[in-house]
Protein: Trypsin-like peptidase domain-containing protein
Amino acid sequence: MINYWRKFLSIGLYLVVFGTVACQGQKNEKEVVYRDYTHMEADLLDSLKRDEVKTLFRGVHVLRQQAQQVKESTPVRLESQRVEKKKLSPQDMIEKRRGSVLTVNKYHRAMMHPEGVTGWATAVVLSNDGICVSNYHVFWEFLDSTAKLNPRDSIMFVATEEGRVYPITEILSFNKAADVTFFKIDTRGDMLTPIPLGNDLPAGTGVHLLSHPEGYPYAYTNGVVMRTTTSDAKDPFARRMELTVDYAKGSSGGPIMDDCGNMVAMVSSIRAIFYSNQPPYSQQMNVKLTIPVSSLRMLMQGKNE
Structure:
């Protein structure tokens, strides 16, 4: 019996030591990087003032004039990337997809307040030459002829996590019911990393999000598909995937991904459920509505892998 316990304790000690070494080795392989996002908007403002960048941007009035000429549901010539079939850990997914996720920003000219840059929303790269997608409501001021532009708004642009800025050159297509807008950016000679498109997912499936809640760029959250619904059975663009994934203002246009990092939906809106419609309201739940990737595919004209 004594020999048995000695053997048992030896094995246990071996596992503890081995496990500690393995964890330390894993920690060394993937060093934790602490990024300072507090200066992101100030750094983007500095980037906009560089001479080689100034001439690339179109003002909001020019972009609006171009957007007004685009017909709703115009087909976008775009070949999606090959679907990924290998499951990724959340850490690997963040690293592989962060280059495909851009911030959408506005430059405000100095009037009553100093000039500045404001993070506005999220966009996703779909082609290496600069075709991107975000929400209709992110660009509605350009697409809706009755909308009035904010007099402080001067330009709208996208940027990478490293602060590389890209001008939005034109709106390619949109669908209001689907809350989708395709647009083109000037990549300034860079080859971007497009995200692969997957398929719509049923309720109960795990999903992941990388987006920019206001003040918290490149935030990762996860959850599951809660329901798949439609507000109009006759209109395929009225379909929505409701999720438990956490997001907020600024996440609009962010990519919802499956376990392999394929984009399966896009952030759209939030609906709050309250216990009462009179004070005290007592909010109980937020329902997160997203656009299934099938809605994007219906606007794409080209070979889909």
Notes: The chain has two domains: 40-76+99-185, 206-301. The first strand starts at residue 76 and ends at 77. The chain has seven helices and 14 strands.
